[in-house]
Amino acid sequence: MEDFLLLEIPAFKPKYKKWKRYGYANASEKSNLKAVLEVSTAGYCMYCFSRVRVDQKLYANLEHAIEKGNSDKLIECIPNIGLSCAVCNQTFKRIGEQKRKLSAETVEQYEKHSKCSVKNRKQCTVACKALRDLQKRYNCLSGAEIILQPMGVKGEDSHEELALQYNIIKMMFEPAKDRHTYSDQEIQFIDAHINRFRLNDFQYRTHQLFDFVQNVIDSNGKIPTYEYNNLIVKLFCEKLSGKPTEEIVRICESIFMIMFPKM
C-alpha cells in the first residue's frame, strides 16, 4: 500500500528529431517545438502539471527557462525552451524576474563560450557546457530557486536531479526526498520552487486525484477513460494498471478514507 501513497513526478525529456527544425520565432519551427514538448509532458504543464490541451486546443506557452532577455542567444536555444500553462509562464515565473537578471560579465562569458550563432543558427537540441554553466549561475541568484524545464536541475551536494513527489496522505507536493539523498539546502530549493508555482496553495492545489478515486469506487473498480486534468492522476492510474478490480477498489477506498477528512 505504501507504494501508492507517493507519486514521483518524472523528468521531462523531449526526443527531438534530427531531420526536423525547431525554433521560437519561425512559425513552422515553433509548431514543431510545441509538438515535441507536448509529447514529452503527455500534454501537461512542466511546472504545475495541469493539462494544457483541452478539446483539441493547446493552451500552452513556449517558456524560456533562463529568460531570453538575458542574451539573444537564448531566444532560439532549444534546450532552454519548455512548455507551460499561461499562468505559470506569465504570472508565477515572472515574479522577481528583474532580480534574476544575469550580470553583463556572466552573459559575456556565456556568449563567448557558446558555439551557437545568432545570425547562422545551427540546430542544437542538447544543453552545451556553456548553457549548463549559465544555468548554475542563474540558479544561484536570489529568487531563482526554480527547477528549470526541460533541462532540469542537478543538486550541487547530492549530484542527483532535483525532483518533486506528490504525497497522497498530505495531498501535497513535496521534495522527492524519499527516493533521493538531498541535502537540506537542496530541499529548501525544491520547496521554494513549489511555493513559487503555488502548487500547495489552497486556491490552486489540485483536487483531481480525490475526484478520480471517488469515481473508481463508485464504478466498482473501473478506471475512468477521460483525459485527466492533472498529471498526478495519470501517474496514479499507471500504478493501478493491471491490478484486479477488487484490489483497485480496496486501494482507492483506503486512499479515499485518508483524503476525505482533508477535503
Please name the defining characteristics of this protein.
single chain; about 260 residues; alpha+beta; 2 domains; 3-stranded antiparallel β-sheet; two-stranded antiparallel sheet; 8 helices
Mean pLDDT score = 92
- What does the main sheet amount to? 3 strands, antiparallel
Give the C-alpha Rg: 20 Å
Number of helices: 8
What is the total domain count?
A: 2
Helix-and-strand structural type: alpha+beta
- Strand proportion, as a percent range, falls in 5-15%
**Spans of 5+ residues with little confidence (pLDDT < 50)?**
none
Strand order of the largest sheet: 1-6-7
Q: How many DSSP-defined strands?
A: 7
Please trace the helix and strand order, writing H or E for each element: EHEEEEHHHEEHHHH
> Can you give the helix content as a percent range?
25-40%
- Give the CA-CA distance, first to last residue: 21 Å
Shape: globular
How would you explain this protein's 3D organization?
It is built from eight helices and seven strands; from the N terminus they run βαββββαααββαααα. Helix content is 35%, strand content 9%. Helix 3 (104-113) runs antiparallel to helix 4 (129-139). The strands form three sheets. Strands 1-6-7 form a three-stranded antiparallel β-sheet. The chain has a two-stranded antiparallel ribbon with strand order 2-3. The protein has a two-stranded antiparallel ribbon with strand order 4-5. It is globular and about 60 Å long. The protein folds into two domains: 11-152, no CATH class; 208-262, no CATH class. The protein is an alpha+beta fold. Strand 2 (53-54) and strand 3 (57-58) form a beta hairpin. It has helices spanning 27-41, 86-92, 104-113, 129-139, 184-196, 208-218, 231-240, 245-259; strands at 6-8, 53-54, 57-58, 61-64, 81-84, 164-167, 172-175.
